[in-house]
Amino acid sequence: MHRRQFLSTAPATGLAAATGLVAGTAPARAQEAPWAPPGAQVPAVQRFTVGDITVTAICDGSLVIGHDALIGIEKDAFDSLMTDAFQDPAAFPAAVNTFAIQSGDETIMIDAGTANAMGPSLGQMAANLAAAGIAPDSVTRLIATHLHPDHVAGALTGDGGAFFRNAELAVSETERAFWTDEANFTGAPEMMQTFAQLARNVLSAYGDRVAPFSGEAELGRGLTAMPLPGHTPGHSGIMLSSGDASLLIWADIVHVTPVQFARPDVAIGFDVDPEQAVATRRQILDRVTADRLMVAGSHIGFPGMAHVVADGEGYRMVPAGWQYTL
């Protein structure tokens, strides 16, 4: 694991919104109305089905990722890929998505967004969850794909309690161990220490309801964990299966869609082990392409659902179609 590279590189990257992160600063439980006033976007919620499982994409907002956040691509190449995708190279809005899974009598959240920990363009999970008609107290399980703040800061209330008060928190044991080992962050920049403290705050808030899993663990109700290490040591995807239908929620396999599908060799400065992250990305892109498996990404433009096809030496994302009926 290239821990030192991670610790020295991450704070210099272009995730500028993260610089104001304060551990445990999530808002109180949201009471926003499920409609938008003039000048605001409508609630970003979309439902679709995987067999008998209903998946609701819940938007948390977006963050700007620039060329300086990436590893392994020259700026001219970055700008060209962005321009070809009709994106502004200086202000690419990477989505932050969470997903609510309703299977049987369970409501399961996959990640929890940022709350107010990473700036005003984020923190929309709670309001959009309310717009979807899902009460936080109805959530029986929160599965954290990993413990970065854009995935778990929203699991806390403003006073540091559990936002999902009745939920078990499932997280990879490898991930839990990494963020709770202070030796991993000795001498690390302040931002990385803050990330680690927030992860510990989340684990503490859920206390004896933390349920670590290892490897390809069955998480019940048609959900299986899939180790996808590199971005963080315990970074995990979640495979949903029901009947003949499947969906892989692959979390942070891709952060910058116009670049990393075409150039899967490009890493991001927040990868704990950039080389392993690239190898994992290539492996899973090969698999979903061969199997024609639909994926859901934490940083694919909302609602985050896509198919992947091979394209030259890289890949191309094909956004999934709107599901008109459930």
Automatic annotation (TrEMBL):
Task: State the SMART domains in the record.
Answer: Lactamase_B
Metallo-beta-lactamase domain boundaries: 95-299
Per UniProt, the keywords (alphabetical) are:
Hydrolase, Metal-binding, Signal, Zinc
Q: Where is the signal peptide?
A: 1-30
Q: Name one GO molecular function term.
A: hydrolase activity
**Hydrolase recorded as keyword:** yes
Q: Which family does it belong to?
A: Belongs to the metallo-beta-lactamase superfamily.
Please name the PANTHER family in this protein's record. Answer: QUORUM-QUENCHING LACTONASE YTNP-RELATED (PTHR42978:SF6), QUORUM-QUENCHING LACTONASE YTNP-RELATED-RELATED (PTHR42978)
Q: What is this protein called?
A: Lactamase
Native species:
Roseivivax isoporae LMG 25204
